[in-house]
Structure formats: C-alpha cells, structure tokens
Amino acid sequence: MTLEFALTRNEQPAADDVRQGVLDEPGFGRHFTDHMVSIDWTAEGGWQNARVEPYGPLQMDPASAVLHYGQEIFEGMKAYRRADGSVWTFRPDQNAQRMQRSAARLALPQLPEQDFLEAVRQLVEVDEAWVPSGGENSLYLRPFMIANEVFLGVRAAQTVRFMVIASPAGPYFAGGVKPVSIWLSREYNRAGKGGTGAAKCGGNYAASLLPTQLAVAQGCAQVLFLNEEGTDLEELGGMNVVLVKSDGTLITPDSDSILDGVTRNSLLQLAEDAGHRVERRPVTLAEWRDGVADGSITEAFACGTAAVLTPIAALKSTDEVIGDPDAPAGPVATALRAQLTDLQYGRAEDPHGWMVQL
Ligand code: COI
Predict the structure, then answer these.
(1) Nearest to 345 by CA among 170, 86, 121
(2) Is 356 in contact with 92 (CB distance < 8 Å)?
(3) Which pTM does this prediction carry?
(4) How far apart are CA 243 and CA 259, in angstroms?
(5) pLDDT by residue (tens digit) across 150-184?
(6) Rounded to the nearest whole angstrom, what is the distance from the C-alpha of residue 298 to the centroid of ligand 1?
(7) Helices 92-105, 262-273: inter-axial angle, 10-degree rounding
C-alpha cells in the first residue's frame, strides 16, 4: 500500500523577489525551498505519517543515534525546467533503488520505490516555483534517511526518518564546466573491502573531507582515491571517474567499494549508443600515467549528479603531474556532456525513456 501525504503549506514562503534572487544566482547547496517532506518509520509500525510541511529546523534529541554513529544515507537528484515551462526529473527510479541498497548496508529500513518517487513528486509540486529556468540550473533534490532513535547502544535504530529537501542549484564547481585538476590521495583511502564504499552514506563523504582539504590546498578541485593497495583508481571525493582512450574507448573502475553512479551509468550508455566501447574493469594508476605519456589516453572526466560531467585536465600528486593542467575540455567529454544535458532539458531525444515529468 502506498502512503498518503498530508500537506501543511508554508504560510510564510520566501517573498517573490527573494526567491527570484536565489534563482538568478543559486550557487550550490546554500538556499532551500519553502517545504520539506518527512516520513517516519518505526520497527513496530513501519512507514507512516508522510507529510509535506514548511521547511525548517528539526528538533532532535541530542542522544539521537545518527548524531553518534552516523547511521544515515542520502541521494542526490535534480528537477529540470524545460523551455516550455514543464518540470522533469532524471531516472528517479535509479535513486530510489540505490537508496534501498544503501539502506540495506546501513541497517536502515527500505522505503518502497513508489513512496520515494511520490515524496519527490510532492515536494517538487508544492515548490515548483523554485525550479530555475535557463542555463544549466536545476532544483537539486536531496532525499535522506536518519536514525532518530534516542539510544546510545550501538545497534540498528528502531525509529528512523526519511526526508526530502530541495535546493536551487547552479554548477557544483565554482569555475562552471572548466576542466579541473584533481589531487591523488596517497595516504588516505575512501573505503575498504567489505566497507560502506558502495553505499551513499554520510560517513564516506566525511572520510573524504580531510583529503579534499589537502587537495584544495594544492589548487585542486577534488581528490582521487585509490584502492587499498594503492594501485587502482576508485573514485573522487564525491563523484566517479572515467578515462577516454584515443580509439574512443571509455574505461571506468569496476569496484565494489565505489558508488554506482546514475550519471556515470547514463553517460556510459549514451557513449555506447554513439558507438564507443565501454570497459568497466579495474583501472590502474599506471595505465593512466602510461596512457597519457604515450597518447593512448586522451581525456578524463569526473561525473555525478551535482557535477554533471566535469573534464579533468590533470591528476597531480607530490611527485608527478599526469596531463596538462591548462588543457581544454576534450571532444568526447564535451559531446557526452552536451548529449546528457540536452536530454535532461528536453532539447534532444530521450531514447531510453529516462525523463519523468513531475
Ligand atoms: C551528487 O552528485 O549528487 C552527490 O551526492 C555528491 C555531492 C558531491 C554533492
């Protein structure tokens, strides 16, 4: 049975000019819409009390489990406004299903896919005026789930809340789609075998913060993590990585300790549709280094919901620079990026039926 959502409208929504100011220059992750969705779960009663209510601070007991043991998962997705004013989202079923996989790993309850999709739809419907138009702006949607049981014992919480908040968003990186340099983390790993690397949980991102600080101190936009052995590529601090060979083949790490990116899967599918070969397999750092040196690797890019596709100009570390930090975006990355965004904004065919109108 699917949940019914109760709606309590925000009686003090942002003034039109304040909202317009945000939509004109949204930045990333700083401004939030007038409403939020919450659904509660208890071990005895299951999912209940689905509601859309005014956006605002949560009241939480300081002994809530999430504050101590980080039992939390989240998703990232976007709503896009097309030139005709209609609002669409991209493969929301993929986010719903990934959240179920993350929930399983973090011992959280699985929200049925239909309820996840309806929660997102309800929020976008009530806050439709917050979906930006023009450019590459969108309404970033952040579903998340927290363990809110008041208990300090270390075990899976018996009470949980699922929420969705929304934030008008421009480019994730300050420089827009300009190619970035990334920093190779040699001393820190993101995840280990059997860990939570494939789950979208806050802890993975917390673990990336110090290495990311070190990357930024080196003038890089993101950090690249290797596997535990220090040989194979894993992923960046908050997005996947793909290399492009001179023969057009795309290669990307296949590892059970990285996030199964919806954007990455979609870009690789579009690439295959366009006749590129795609290889999902372990990719060594040596392969990248040697490939750049002998010209057989011509491009690299980062991809994720927030970052879309961002070309990687160079990989830097204490002892080497792979690539040219001033290199412009390559043709494959540029074409794939345009194809994906054209599809998302309704300017191109959607051969796989990925777009869902809200
Ligand atoms: C996303 O791409 O949506 C993420 O969740 C990653 C984060 C860097 C914003």
Answers:
(1) 86
(2) yes
(3) 0.95
(4) 17
(5) 999 999 999 999 999 999 998 787 766 789 999 99
(6) 26
(7) 130
